[in-house]
Amino acid sequence: MIRFHKKEGRRSERGVALFIAIFTLLLITAIAAGMIMLTNTDTNISSNFRDEQAAFFGAKAGIEEVRDRMRNTATDSLGSSLPGASAPSSAPPLPGQTGGILYVTNPLNGETDTPWSIGGNYYPDDEICSEMTSMGGQCNANPIRPLPSLNWYNTASASSTYAASPALAWKWTRVTVKTNKTSSGTASNNTVDGSTSDNNQLVCWNNSTEVALPTTYGTCNADGYVPVYALTSLGVTSSGSRRMVQAEAAYSFPTFPGAMIFDGPNPTYGAPSSAAFGVSGVDQGTGPTYAGAPACPSTYNQAALGAYNTVSQATLTATITSNGTSSQYTGSSSVGNVNSSLGVLGTVEGLNALVSTVTSAASSANIYNSNVTGVTNWGTDGAPVINVITGDLTMSGGLTGSGILLVEGTLTLQGNPSYDGLILVIGKGVVNKGGGGNGVMNGSLLVANLYNSSNQLITSGAPGSPTINWNGGGNAQINYSSCWANSFAMQMPYRIVGMREMMY
Fold it and tell me: Does 412 share its domain with 350?
């Protein structure tokens, strides 16, 4: 008997494809969501970084505006408001003392911007009480912020001349003189000279580095240096990013340590034999008379003749001794070795930088690109002028002038020319004076030769041998004046000598 067995049908697999499709869709959705999240995260990171950078460069913009406005000749100059500017012969006030701080504020759309206040959220200066030990009793204990006294700070506003559109993100820039230990810490690396005991001594710039003055000095001018200012700026964006930057700035123009400076080894000096001729390093204390001219610093005597090194000092001393006129060279000494005081001016690189600085500051109408026998505008005490002559120059007759005279060729003096300011003979390094005359110069005369004995341009190191041939002499007089010699520093942009970001 045949049996028929009924085959059981295979189980239905309908619905599996739908499950796989849903699972795949969920997987793709998860991947897409992750990618979106990563993209948003990257976007937020980029946005935050961009915002942080905006705050950082905003703070730097505040420093740059204030740095430029520190010049006496700048638009909306802050020069007269700087700590110590009203009395340059005295020690400048420290932070916490009357007038020891200048705040330049930059509020946005009428917002309140009061860094000196302990109340509210108006961009208070939370840093200064931790940074400046000289603030003393001007600080509140909790929160640690300066007390809102009207005695220890001055204020100024950002200038529309420097404004950008949209407005830059800096809120304020604080200006103080730098002291030897500005931090409340005790580590020696908080000081200029590594000492922890000489707190609050003034820090000065000597053309090449910062130095902390001994306690016997109260002002940088007393040692022939210039003050260093600390510029601290806060940048805050509309979304709340905050960055604080601090820079140290000093005059970019060097000092001149003598009435007549032979800036180079092996000098040649044809010294005049006239009993009436004289060179004085005694500081005359005279300067420009134009409106807004910087007040003269305390007087500081220099050598009558500035020598490049000890060998040059001996050469010049023998020259004026042999013709019996050494008594006519007065000052801190008749001939001084000023090598350490020359700083960057003792090198070809520094002299070239000085030539570039002076040339860039001169008006195009006062730059003469050939040998000349006359200058259109010699300047006056009330309106000094910077003149640049790239060739030779002859000064004759009874002309008078004021300002800076830069001669890259040979300077020839005839007659009775008088001049107030700086005469810089940098290039050929030759000055020739013939005959008598009774002209008077107040300021400083510097002669530097940028060529070697083979008449090849020197590219680095020490300059060549300078030459001054002064025949006759008459009763001409050359007087040192620190005010004339240094007054142009305040017309030049301050140099940034240090920069750092503060942990705000």
Answer: yes
Amino acid at position 448, single letter: A
Residue 127: name the closest of 119, 136, 115 by CA. 115
Cα dihedral 300, 303, 306, 311, rounded to 10, equals: -130
Distance CA 358, CA 428 (A): 17
Tell me the CA end-to-end span of the chain in Å, nearest whole number.
Answer: 102
- Say what the pTM is: 0.71
If one counts the domains in the chain, the total is 2
The model's pLDDT over 198-248, given as tens digits with 9 standing for 90+, comes to: 566 888 887 778 888 877 667 787 666 788 999 999 999 988 899 999 999
Are 467 and 380 part of one and the same domain? yes
Asked whether residue 146 falls in the same domain as residue 265, the answer is: no
Q: What is the pLDDT of residues 281-296, one digit of tens each?
A: 999 988 888 876 777 8
Counting Cα atoms < 13 Å in the Cβ hemisphere of 8 gives 3
Locate tokens 């795949």: which residue? 24
Query: Contact 198/263 with Cβ under 8 angstroms?
Result: no
> Are 277 and 186 found together in one domain?
no
Residues 446 and 482: beta-carbon distance below 8 Å: no
| Token pair in block for residue 364 | 């195009």
Q: Answer for the pair 128, 118: CB distance below 8 angstroms, yes or no.
A: no
Closest by CA position to 361, among listed 486, 448, 256, 491: 491
Residues 290 and 308 placed together within one structural domain of the fold: yes
Looking at the fold, whether 144 and 178 belong to one and the same domain comes out as yes
Same domain (yes/no): 242, 389 = no
Does residue 312 sit in the same domain as residue 439?
yes
Domain boundary pick from 208, 231, 250: 250
**What does residue 32 show for φ and ψ, rounded to 5 degrees?**
-65, -40
Q: Which amino acid is at 455?
A: N
- DSSP state letters, 379-405: -BTTB-EEEEESS-EEE-TT-EEEEEE
Q: Percent of the chain beyond pLDDT 90?
A: 39
Q: CA 128 to CA 144: how far, in whole Å?
A: 9
The domain of 124 spans 64-250
Residue 27 placed within a domain = no
Do residues 392 and 412 make contact, with C-beta atoms less than 8 angstroms apart? Answer: yes
Q: Report d(CA 351, CA 345) in Å as an integer.
A: 5
Measured distance CA(392)–CA(407) in Å, rounded: 7
